[in-house]
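User: Sequence in, structure out. Go.
Assistant: Echoing your sequence, followed by the structure tokens.
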Amino acid sequence: MMTPTNQVLPADEHNAALVRHVHPSDWTNPTPTGRYNLVVIGGGTAGLVTAAGAAGLGAKVALVERHLMGGDCLNFGCVPSKGIISAARRAAAMRGGEDFGVTASEVKVDFAAVMQRMRKLRAGISRSDSVKRFASLGVDVFLGQASFTGKDSISVGDKELKYHTAVIATGARAAAPPIPGLQDVPYLTNETLFSLNELPKRLAVIGAGPIGCEMAQTFARLGSEVFVVESGHGILPREDADASAILLAQMKRDGVTLLCCGKELKLSKGEGGTVRLVVDSHDHGYDLTVDKLLVAVGRAPNVEGLNLQAVGVEHDKKGVKVDDHLRTANKRIFACGDICSPYQFTHSADFQARIVIQNALFFGWKKASALITPWATYTSPEIAHVGLYEKDARDRGIPITTFTQPLSEVDRAILDGETEGFVRVHVRQGTDEIVGATIVAAHAGDLISELTLAMTSKIGLGKIAATMHPYPTQAEAIRKVGDQYNRTRLTPRLKSLMTKLLAWRRGN
């Protein structure tokens, strides 16, 4: 098993600072005194929010983390990926300056500096997730492997923690899919990708989901020749087809080669640590040699070592099984976050943790199914979504009306040179009740929150149309969708009546 210090590479001052915060080598586990209201296993987003929230409400809380506080998001996911995505966007913007009358000299990317910046920023952000910070909040922090030992006890090393309620928040990790030859070649996952300090000249990415697309586009913009292998057709198969098509066109402009409908994929070692990739795509055979291979498909729940069978907690290859209140088969044990959720997002883990606090400590009956969960893929343009897709509504027998506002008809998007995108909203037919929405825009992840708020607070599209938006902004596209809905309310009969009324007022 990897130790925290060799898991975070390279061993520079920034990663040393990160490890000091999230798994300090000189940390001494406290001595448990009495029973805890909550023992939380896992120091990722779900576990941290649960522990901090419960302690803030006066509960006696223990938090156990075997590797790095902050979990995937801080160490191998959201934080480092957005750090290098921001650099790639700067590079792309500089190359596209001529369209704005701004000519720059040759754009040079210092990949080592890009990664160093990311590591520096990650180390700074890690203070919020640090062992010392959580100890200062009144949480007893234990570093080590947690294992259930009885109906109300958990061991961590030589310590035994007694609990009234336990919470499993151990998350998930990258898992190798069954690809012929994969085990024989060196490959990267999101857990090792951000340890790179040299830009690969040629990079292959297996999987065209959110992580695969984000990293493929990013490395292409930073200067790699990138190939994406996807077994299905196109990219982002879960997303709106029009949205995926817009992003695919941009990725191709950025230099990404998509090998979709990939069949008979085989991997083998090349010379000098390279990887040979053989695949059929649309009846054409490809035989490629790449410097690095990123596997961006496959996740596995972190259940090893927990001894779940001792406490009757059921789990499968997808994770720990919970009911709608996030309670496991053992009524004294809850779970939240990636270990049990179909929505493996940091913000989803955060809000599930809030449900657990209420249900575990205060006899609440909050339901995970009541959460309105948005998500975003941080490519350029971004794709953000909330609620139902058109196919979802059709499958559920929900009649809908769809309104789409192209960004090519939004003044700020035109002025920004960001017209490739749209706002699309689905409403329940005959009403203005929003049941789903997709946004494709440069900052779609920021824009989607207005529609998420509307759905959560049951605000209809008509009220959005009546809400003044500043001009010129790209958020006006959302208001314009509301205007489209309002125009449908002007039926021929109503228009005829209004025409007669206005004629009467003119004295005609």
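User: And one key feature?
Assistant: The chain has three domains: 4-174+300-370, 182-297, 381-488.
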